[in-house]
């Protein structure tokens, strides 16, 4: 049972999310609430650094660090001067949003590999870091959309790398049970948590636990909302990992299932709140509604 949560939950709820989210107390300080560090954004996709940083701050965490290319650091600070630049003490990492695996810099590859292999800090792995997930030894959550799932699976020995046809497509376009099966088998092979984004987001752990998140809205289908989700997931993860650190224990990968589902629930709810009775939203609108989504779960 991941983190004491029910073994199987057909759909993740506000009450489930409240059981994962941490409301600060008088005894807290910024480090006890958790530090999330991000390696996100690139010269090609500079905006993703801002979107993921904003998603992390708005989800609630003690500190956000951003450790990316100097040329875009100003964008992050312009939007969020609270952000601390450079790597350092962290309870969780977010890697890959706004990075393209095919064109990423040597520096990005080296640093992301090192983060995934050294130490035990858990990580959220998105977009341009997904192909590295199979090499990881730290507890991790991967956050692919349908088009990116093969980046996770091919290094694990699934699928075929050298043909144009994607052998996954028919399985993902099939019925819900088959989609769940694909996500669960990927989590088992990876030894990490898989969060497959979509209208219904599916989360599975290597131990066989899984859940579905349906809190969102089709208005979320807009560029950059996934980058906000990655930051939000990093913040929830940092909070849970910091609590484990304060308790003097290492976080178990099974605990990351409820963390991922909670981040997806918050993000979906934020999208729904931002879209109101039904109007277009931007990724930053979603980030800005995250505090309201948090309050909707915890009643604070
Ligand atoms: N402002 C910024 O900085 C932004 C930065 N961003 C960053 O851009 C990078 C590239 O990310 P990406 O998602 O845009 O493109 P990529 O990984 O090449 O995959 C796209 C291919 O997959 C397919 N596909 C199938 N299902 C799909 C689905 N559900 N959702 C989406 N695609 C789906 C689809 O194929 P099609 O259906 O068109 O045949 C399509 O050809 C990444 O680092 C990201 O963080 C973005 O967040 C935008 C805002
Ligand atoms: N039709 C939809 N209904 C509900 N949520 C959606 C829908 N389409 C996309 N989303 C959500 O929007 C986000 C899109 O993320 P992603 O595809 O990574 O976009 P980007 O790479 O542009 O940031 C995910 O959280 C996904 O679950």
CATH class division: Alpha Beta
Structural class: alpha/beta
Number of strands: 9
Q: Mean of the pLDDT scores? A: 94
**Helicity, in percent?**
40-55%
Instruction: Output the number of helix runs.
Output: 11
CATH topology grouping: UDP-N-acetylmuramoyl-L-alanine:D-glutamate ligase
CATH architecture heading:
3-Layer(aba) Sandwich
- The parts where pLDDT drops under 50 for at least 5 residues are none
Rough shape?
globular
Distance between the termini: 27 Å
Q: Give, in order, the helices and strands.
A: HHEHEHEEHEEHHHEEEHHH
What profile does the largest beta sheet have?
Answer: 9 strands, mixed
- Under CATH, the homologous superfamily reads Ribokinase
Strand content: 5-15%
Oligomer: single chain
- Overall tally of structural domains: 1
List the strand order in the largest sheet: 3-2-1-4-5-6-7-8-9
Rg, rounded, reads 17 Å
Subunit structure: Homotetramer.
Cofactor: Mg(2+)
Binding site for AMP: 197-201, 226
Protein name: ADP-dependent (S)-NAD(P)H-hydrate dehydratase
Provide keyphrases for this structure.
single chain; 300 residues; alpha/beta; UDP-N-acetylmuramoyl-L-alanine:D-glutamate ligase; nine-stranded mixed beta sheet; 11 helices; binds ligand NPW; ATP-binding; ATP binding
Please give the structural blueprint:
Blueprint: H1 14-18, H2 30-33, E1 35-39, H3 47-59, E2 63-66, H4 70-79, E3 84-85, E4 92-95, H5 106-117, E5 123-125, E6 140-142, H6 149-153, H7 169-172, H8 176-190, E7 193-196, E8 201-204, E9 210-213, H9 225-246, H10 256-275, H11 283-298
Parallel strand pairs: 1-2, 1-4, 2-3, 4-5, 5-6, 6-7
Antiparallel strand pairs: 7-8, 8-9
Helix pairs in contact: 3-4, 3-9, 3-11, 9-10, 9-11, 10-11
The chain binds ligand NPW and adenosine-5'-diphosphate.
